[in-house]
């Protein structure tokens, strides 16, 4: 059966999705152009036509994944509700106990970024945009007198550091900490940073 002819943009999207899946399955260092091509039933030459090198394909794949994560974050933070509800929803989604996918991918990316400047730029940009979005919604909550937080920027950094660290523990060391305990720690940290009782977070979800 003949393959459907795709536009350049559609083909690129298809290749990036396949690359993300292969990186998650095999790891950055082990994945090959041939793995991505084989997954889609296309030639190595076609993949190289769009991305030229494995390094460029990997960097583009991480950028593609980052764009998807940031789009979801913006949707959560753009809801027409209180800042506290938006912040809690975003943190719970991003946390390794939530619905965010691809933690294995990002752990791979952090490690590879130590040696790949293009990938380092992608992971750094994602980190910066995530922290900026969280900082903004915290500042909105403070302005609306929903909670107290003298340093929204510092709070955003501490929260993301906790979430990233728990993601490593849950993904790399199964059994090191339970998902329920990790979620408790996340909720406790969020409440503490905002000067709230933990029960206020539960109430905000109703």
Keywords:
single chain, about 210 residues, Tetracycline Repressor, domain 2
Annotation, overall tally of beta strands: 0
**Strand content bin:** under 5%
**What is the third-level CATH name, the topology?**
Tetracycline Repressor, domain 2
Overall helicity = over 70%
Instruction: Report how far apart the termini are.
Output: 51 Å
Task: Give the tally of structural domains.
Answer: 1
Number of helical segments with 4 or more residues = 10
Overview of this structure, please?
Helices cover 74% and strands 0% of the residues. The N and C termini lie far apart (51 Å). The model has no long low-confidence stretch (mean pLDDT 88). 30% of the residues are buried. The chain has ten helices and no strands. The protein has 206 residues and is mainly α. The chain has a single domain, classed as Tetracycline Repressor, domain 2, CATH 1.10.357.10.
Short overview:
This protein has 206 residues and is mainly alpha-helical. It is built from ten helices and no strands. The termini are far apart.
Layout of SSEs?
Layout: H1 8-26, H2 33-40, H3 44-51, H4 54-77, H5 83-94, H6 103-113, H7 117-143, H8 152-172, H9 179-194, H10 198-204
Helix pairs in contact: 1-2, 1-4, 2-3, 3-4, 4-7, 5-7, 6-7, 7-8, 8-9
